[in-house]
Amino acid sequence: MSSGKFPLLQREEERDAEVTWEDQQRINQFSRLNVRLENLEDEYKSQKTEKEYLDDLATEIELIDEEEPVPYKIGDAFIMMSLEQAQARVERDKAAIDSRVDELDSQISAITSEMDELKRALYAKFGQAINLEKS
């Protein structure tokens, strides 16, 4: 005897739901979009964290003496620059991150919308026999 909330319903749906080539293409597309969405969400979180670091850095730079050179990390190296150069660099980096975050947000929205359409179509045909939710 199978376990589950609706064992007879699931068996009946599995028996009646024939997977066509088009259905398989939708399932594959959903899977590809899901992987892409996860990657974009990871990058989004990373960019937001980087933005927070830059905000903290901008606050710290304001406290530095104007005559002191400021070490600014570029890649794996620190470059000494003037206070004005460091402030300009922080603002430029923050603007670049803001732009990337906006771009990522737009891409995430578009992918989520496309995935929702695929979910509706697949759930309409397969019901409980398919699971497209994140675990």
UniProtKB/TrEMBL annotation:
Keywords in alphabetical order: Chaperone, Coiled coil
Keyword rRNA-binding belongs to the record: no
Coiled coil feature spans: 30-57
One cellular-component annotation, GO: cytoplasm
Superkingdom to which the source organism belongs: Eukaryota
One Pfam family, short name: Prefoldin_2
A single GO BP: protein folding
Chaperone keyword on record: yes
InterPro entries per UniProt: PFD_beta-like, PFDN4, Prefoldin
MF-aspect GO terms: unfolded protein binding
Entry similarity comment: Belongs to the prefoldin subunit beta family.
Main function: Binds specifically to cytosolic chaperonin (c-CPN) and transfers target proteins to it. Binds to nascent polypeptide chain and promotes folding in an environment in which there are many competing pathways for nonnative proteins.
Assembly information from the UniProt record: Heterohexamer of two PFD-alpha type and four PFD-beta type subunits.
Designated name of the protein: Prefoldin subunit 4
